[in-house]
């Protein structure tokens, strides 16, 4: 079985397009008019608090949930009506992991591989997710993080054009997460479109070309991790200690502020730090303050912090 992608596997066009997507469960509106465009080959992350509507939106895109309204095209088809050949082009790593089984990871991956016209070699896919040495162990003997890696193996074994990952690294140790990120980057480099939901902002920052923040069923901000919510233009905070008192200046020009401070100290500026909003801080502001997507006006302000 061929286990390499050809250059022609780099894809062009739109992988996912949704307009006015809506879904309610009884009186709960889970998805309240979402528009999405995800390009082929893109890594796109959906962020949002618990219950924001991410899984519902993604399950509609996967064809596992009916929408109440809206237009959706995924790999050129309506997921509500698309057939088996369309499904074979899609990989899914569900939020909840598959329960333990008396089979081995190799048995399970082999079984799943049989459903796809063009699958990875099962041994290779287990190597790629870091389960090579557990290929012949019992699935029920795997740790939580190892089981999750098996879920990822099952999601990618069919060499999907589009891979949905719902909170894929929950339970991974830090080294396994880094390894998983490398795998995702490799898959993206080979042309796979990836739609990721995650609560780990560092994961979104490390992997995503673009992110969208969902809150209460609506997209409240979208952009690259670096520019989301006006992050690129946000003021920096320069902090230091002067005569035992913590000082800070919020400024659009931290280099100038530090240069002006330098001559006022004989040597090092005590406890100097320059901080710009992290993706996590930006995200928290976006979901806490309605309309916070507007950019801040770059006015400089100085204050002394209470000790
Ligand atoms: N099958 C269901 N029946 C009734 N309500 C549901 C169902 N699935 C989801 N909901 C509700 O819809 C809303 C959105 O849930 P959803 O699972 O899409 O959110 P989420 O953003 O994926 O959350 P999480 O980060 O916790 O996974 C929530 O209020 C949830 O309780």
Automatic annotation (TrEMBL):
Its main location: membrane. InterPro entries: AAA+_ATPase, ABC_transporter-like_ATP-bd, ABC_transporter-like_CS, ABC_transporter_ATP-binding, P-loop_NTPase. GO terms for biological process: response to antibiotic. Transmembrane segments: none annotated. SMART domains: AAA (SM00382). This is ABC-2 type transport system ATP-binding protein. Keywords: Antibiotic resistance, ATP-binding, Cell membrane, Membrane, Nucleotide-binding, Translocase, Transport. It is a peripheral membrane protein. It comes from the Bacteria. GO terms for molecular function: ATP binding; ATP hydrolysis activity. It is found in: Cell membrane. Residues 16-241 form the ABC transporter domain.
């Amino acid at each position: 079985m061929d286990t390499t992608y050809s250059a022609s596997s780099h894809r062009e066009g739109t992988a996912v397009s949704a307009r006015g997507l809506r879904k309610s469960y009884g009186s709960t509106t889970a998805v309240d008019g979402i528009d999405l465009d995800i390009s082929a080959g893109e890594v796109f992350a959906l962020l949002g608090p618990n219950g924001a509507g991410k899984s519902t939106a993604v399950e509609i895109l996967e064809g596992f949930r009916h929408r109440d309204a809206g237009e959706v095209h995924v790999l050129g088809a309506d997921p509500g009506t698309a057939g088996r050949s369309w499904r074979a082009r899609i990989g899914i790593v569900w939020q909840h992991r598959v329960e333990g089984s008396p089979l081995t990871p190799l048995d399970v991956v082999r079984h799943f591989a049989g459903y796809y016209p063009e699958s990875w070699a099962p041994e290779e896919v287990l190597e790629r997710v870091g389960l090579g040495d557990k290929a012949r162990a019992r699935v029920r003997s795997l740790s939580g993080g190892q089981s999750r890696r098996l879920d990822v193996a099952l999601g990618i074994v069919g060499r999907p054009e589009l891979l949905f990952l719902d909170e894929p690294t929950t339970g991974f140790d830090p080294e396994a997460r880094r390894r998983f990120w490398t795998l995702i980057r490799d898959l993206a480099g080979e042309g796979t479109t990836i739609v990721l939901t995650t609560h780990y902002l560092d994961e979104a920052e490390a992997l995503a070309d673009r992110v969208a923040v969902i809150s209460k069923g609506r997209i409240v901000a979208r952009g690259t991790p670096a520019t989301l919510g006006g992050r690129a233009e946000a003021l920096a905070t320069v902090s230091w200690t002067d005569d035992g008192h913590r000082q800070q200046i919020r400024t659009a020009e931290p280099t100038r502020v530090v240069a002006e401070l330098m001559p006022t100290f004989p040597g090092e500026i005590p406890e100097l730090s320059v901080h710009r909003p992290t993706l996590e801080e930006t995200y928290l502001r976006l979901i806490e303050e309605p309309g916070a997507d507007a950019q801040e006006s770059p006015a400089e302000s100085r204050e002394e912090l209470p000790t």
